[in-house]
Amino acid sequence: MDGIFSALRSNLNGMSTQMKRLQTIAENIANAQCSAREDGKVYKRKIVVENPSAFQETFKDKMNLTLERSNEKHISKSDYFGAGNGLASSPKSPYKIVKVDKVDLVYDPTNPNADEQGYVRKADINVVEEMVDLMSANRAYEANISVMNAAKEMAKNTLKL
């Protein structure tokens, strides 16, 4: 049964990543035509990339050690594995969001946000490309659902034995 649960965990990570891709793409499309704000900052296109370190177990995870105190003067688990020393066990996200540092200059001297030369700084987002990415993320999400349903059926059939 561990193999089935492992498959379900992998699928949940995949579905989570694809859902984040969908959200990020929707945000990119919504900000595609935005020009620079008053402070001069321009929306930057975001992409979701895999975080390989999320899939690497640490030595502590593999050993699954527990600390036991026999005396109150001994170090406690919360002291040792606390947030201050970087040893706290926190679930890592299977993805990370990266901002693409690219700005598009559009010549539009009539725009109130144009600079002295008549250029307006806008987010470098191609809506057609974003729509293709949206369809890809949607198909990947659907594929993960299909695999999850297959694993669920396998688990049901195993329990019937």
Task: Annotate the secondary structure layout.
Elements: H1 2-30, E1 46-50, H2 59-63, H3 77-80, E2 95-99, E3 103-107, E4 119-123, H4 127-160
Antiparallel strand pairs: 1-2, 3-4
Descriptive overview:
With 161 residues, the protein is of the alpha+beta class. The chain has one domain (2-51, 93-160). It is built from four helices and four strands, in the order αβααβββα. Helix 1 (2-30) packs antiparallel against helix 4. The longest helix has 34 residues, at 127-160.
Question: Which H/E pattern describes the elements?
Answer: HEHHEEEH
Secondary-structure content class: alpha+beta
Rg over alpha carbons: 24 Å
Mean pLDDT: 78
For the record, give the distance between the C-alpha atoms at the N and C termini, rounded to a whole number: 13 Å
- Detail the poorly predicted runs: 79-90
Query: In the residues, how many domains can be counted?
Result: 1
Number of DSSP helical runs: 4
Query: Helicity level, as a percent range?
Result: 40-55%
**How do the strands of the widest beta sheet line up side by side?**
1-2
Overall body shape? elongated
Largest sheet composition: 2 strands, antiparallel
The number of strands is 4
Q: What fraction strand?
A: 5-15%
